[in-house]
């Protein structure tokens, strides 16, 4: 029985074999990898991963698809977690000593940003992440200071990860085709991210990008003085999209010192 993609789950199933094999090559799975796939859907990528990985974990919200997965694959090789990825505890997946978790998936575009932040909390336990996302989101994730795409998502993720846009995927590679281009992003947690309180960094970055057209002095008025901006190496006349990650971290430190 054919599965009807459900809009409320953001289901767009990848069906292009060439793209699927390109993704697998980008991931480069190894037999003993501790790997979890988010949103396996109709198992197009799942099956290819299982050609190499001895045991795979998947997290799927759609109960109909969970049932299909359990019927199709040997439970000794595939563990299906019937759960919402936004609420799932990824640290519950067993990882052999000396290894870290590898995370892959064609993420539903309607929850991509909150899911990325959910996963960021376990970055120290992760080796790498490979995701299919809306191309515009990936461009924001990897954007460098000075461009229009650089913003809150760029800063908060680049503080924790090295990221690269691997390749672009056209709409016709999916069923049903989305209305936008997609892209594969590779995310590798930084071995030593700049020490910083995440909540304070989030507060600073959110405030800074609340009014993108204004200079940062006006954006963070009431939070920092001009002297404090200069102390953190920030030009008060600069626009938020030109301020690099390390300067936002410096501002978060200043905020933390004040609250101590």
Automatic annotation (TrEMBL):
Its main location: cytoplasm. The keyword Transferase applies. S-adenosyl-L-methionine binds at residues 12, 14, 39, 60, 84, 106. Pfam families: RrnaAD. One of its GO terms (molecular function) is 16S rRNA (adenine(1518)-N(6)/adenine(1519)-N(6))-dimethyltransferase activity. It catalyses: adenosine(1518)/adenosine(1519) in 16S rRNA + 4 S-adenosyl-L-methionine = N(6)-dimethyladenosine(1518)/N(6)-dimethyladenosine(1519) in 16S rRNA + 4 S-adenosyl-L-homocysteine + 4 H(+). It is found in: Cytoplasm. Keywords: Cytoplasm, Methyltransferase, RNA-binding, rRNA processing, S-adenosyl-L-methionine, Transferase. Residues 19-191 form the Ribosomal RNA adenine methylase transferase N-terminal domain. It is an enzyme of class 2 (transferase). Its EC number is 2.1.1.182. HAMAP family: 16SrRNA_methyltr_A. Specifically dimethylates two adjacent adenosines (A1518 and A1519) in the loop of a conserved hairpin near the 3'-end of 16S rRNA in the 30S particle. May play a critical role in biogenesis of 30S subunits. Belongs to the class I-like SAM-binding methyltransferase superfamily. rRNA adenine N(6)-methyltransferase family. RsmA subfamily. This is Ribosomal RNA small subunit methyltransferase A. It comes from Herbaspirillum robiniae. The gene is rsmA.
């Amino acid at each position: 029985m054919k599965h009807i993609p459900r809009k409320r789950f953001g289901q767009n199933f990848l069906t292009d074999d060439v793209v699927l094999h390109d993704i697998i090559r980008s991931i480069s799975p190894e037999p003993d990898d501790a790997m979890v796939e988010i949103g396996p859907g109709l198992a197009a990528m799942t099956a290819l991963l299982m050609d190499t990985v001895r045991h795979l974990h998947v997290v799927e919200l759609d109960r109909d698809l969970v049932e299909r997965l359990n019927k199709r694959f040997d439970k000794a090789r595939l563990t299906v977690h019937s759960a919402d990825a936004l609420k799932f505890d990824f640290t519950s997946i067993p990882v052999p000593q000396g290894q870290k978790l590898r995370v892959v998936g064609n993420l539903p575009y309607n929850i991509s940003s909150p899911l990325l932040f959910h996963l960021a909390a376990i970055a120290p336990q992760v080796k790498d992440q490979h995701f299919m996302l809306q191309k515009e989101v990936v461009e924001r994730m990897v954007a460098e200071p000075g461009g229009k795409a650089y913003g809150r998502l760029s800063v908060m993720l680049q503080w924790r990860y090295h990221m690269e846009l691997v390749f672009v995927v056209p709409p016709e590679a999916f069923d049903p085709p989305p209305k936008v281009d997609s892209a594969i992003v590779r995310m590798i947690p930084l071995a030593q991210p700049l020490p910083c309180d995440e909540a304070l960094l989030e507060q600073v970055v959110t405030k800074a990008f609340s009014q993108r057209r204004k200079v940062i002095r006006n954006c963070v008025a009431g939070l920092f003085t001009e002297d404090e901006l200069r102390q953190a190496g920030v030009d008060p006349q600069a626009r938020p999209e030109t301020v690099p990650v390390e300067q936002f971290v410096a501002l978060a430190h200043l905020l933390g010192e004040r609250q101590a």
